[in-house]
């Protein structure tokens, strides 16, 4: 099936109806997180609705940031930038890193991913040029062996960042992507 344009057309058709019927009114809130909370979560599709329900988060309660693996990859990348903006501009007081069991980034084989890139038309010379420019694509794409350790590392990256105030509580939890059960890996209250 050719998806080119079909998903966007489907979304736009739905959106027109959503706006016409004023369905958005149920979601009206302010830009400031009511619970003064930032959540860094994995982009896994199983967490799209489960995570907010399992954490009692409704629209307007939290700033939710998502990426592959709920990981902080660079101390001055977009994840830390978003957290810093949430803290200083939107008065967030807590940051919770939410990893999950059975994460696709766990033991991700970056060699296989690079081969898939090549099969989709990315030429070897592009990957080689990036490598010679100091970007090891395979290392950059590499996942992690332990979700728990990845959560701890992300919590430490946030906690020890020079622009994060010491009064911000940084927590780390792991979620079951089927039941929503949370297990604490790092309790930032202690």
Automatic annotation (TrEMBL):
Keywords tagged on the record: Metal-binding, Zinc
SMART domains: Pro_CA
Name of the top EC class for this enzyme: lyase
RNA-binding found in the keyword field: no
Residues binding Zn(2+): 42, 44, 100, 103
Statement: the UniProt record of this protein carries the keyword Zinc: yes
Note describing how the cofactor binds: Binds 1 zinc ion per subunit.
GO molecular-function terms, A-Z: carbonate dehydratase activity; zinc ion binding
Catalytic activity: hydrogencarbonate + H(+) = CO2 + H2O
Cofactor: Zn(2+)
Superkingdom classification of source: Bacteria
EC identifiers of the protein: 4.2.1.1
Similarity-based family: Belongs to the beta-class carbonic anhydrase family.
The protein's name: carbonic anhydrase
Natural source organism: Holtiella tumoricola
């Amino acid at each position: 099936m050719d998806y080119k344009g079909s998903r966007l057309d489907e979304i736009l058709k739905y959106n027109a109806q959503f706006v016409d019927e004023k369905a958005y009114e149920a979601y009206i809130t302010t830009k400031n997180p009511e619970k003064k909370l930032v959540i860094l979560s994995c982009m896994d599709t199983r967490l799209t609705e489960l995570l907010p329900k399992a954490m009692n988060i409704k629209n307007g309660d939290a700033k939710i940031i998502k990426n592959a693996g709920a990981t902080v990859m660079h101390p001055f990348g977009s994840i830390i930038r978003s957290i810093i903006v949430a803290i200083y501009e939107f008065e967030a007081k807590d940051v919770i890193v939410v990893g999950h069991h059975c994460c696709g980034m766990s033991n991700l084989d970056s060699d296989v991913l690079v081969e898939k890139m090549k099969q989709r038309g990315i030429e070897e010379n592009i990957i080689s040029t990036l490598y010679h420019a100091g970007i090891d694509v395979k290392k950059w794409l590499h996942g992690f062996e332990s979700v728990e350790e990845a959560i701890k590392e992300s919590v430490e990256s946030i906690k020890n960042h020079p622009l994060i105030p010491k009064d911000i509580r940084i927590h780390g939890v792991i979620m079951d992507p089927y039941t929503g059960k949370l297990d604490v890996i790092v309790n930032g209250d202690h």
